[in-house]
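By convention, each integer encodes one residue's backbone shape. The lines below illustrate.
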Amino acid sequence: MRPEASRTSRALLRAPRSSRVLRSVALLATAAVLTVLTACSSAPTSADTPHAESTAVPTPTATPDPFPTEPLTASTRYVALGDSFAAGMGGGDEKGKCRLSPRAYPTVFARDAGIALVVNAACAGATTSDLLKHQLIALDDRTDLVTVSIGGNDLGVAAIAGDCAAGKATACRNEVTAALSLLNVLPDRLDTVYSAIAQSAPNARIVVTGYTLLYDASDPNAPDFGTAAAINAATLGLNEVIRQAVDEQRAAGKAMTYLPVDFAGHAIGDRKPWLNTTGPDVFHPTGAGYAEYASRLIQLLGKAH
């Protein structure tokens, strides 16, 4: 490793990333027309579009995918990291201060995929700093697979959940706005966390999960439409920052990928939500919600042969 080259690469990456994040914050803070945000997140860049008059097709340089397709086996050593979404808070039968549940997606995924979950080191309330201090010890050069869900608590989602669920509309929207203002500091924190995970588990593939949208905000005439749209917009912004940070790690050669998870048809406001709607676990997935996370992991990684 050459420290000077590493610092230079990070500096070059951070400039465009910061400007993208600030643009996202500006869009979201204005109440963010969700369809516009969704379209922007998937729009192709003009830099990748060939000129119409060009006839020569350059031969691409073959480079190995940093996130290779490898079959899982019964001996795959899997470690889960993250916050309450990885711990399984809200899934039922939680234990300890970290609120670990047997219905957490790492446990369900490991069982259904037929691999060995060495440890679920996730903890409810964990921030990026907490992960660095307390969870990296679970990793080593024998780790084959890592999943991580982190970033929400850096934006103060616990306060948002409490006040929004209690119907405190003004406090809820103020806290959402405050969370949006923190999006521009999150990329550097995620960069540090993802780099530390890759360094601590140098032989592992790393899957970073997104946060599902909490509300069905399809009806603008619904009484809580404003609150629902604001919270969904904040979640979209958070997921976009996470995705960009993962993409930059992968572009730098890290075996890392981003996994979005969608509870479409089962959000708050739908007939059978996969999210807790009241109580201390509000806004966290139910057992069915965590099973969906596990299902998405199996779609991505397959099952052990």
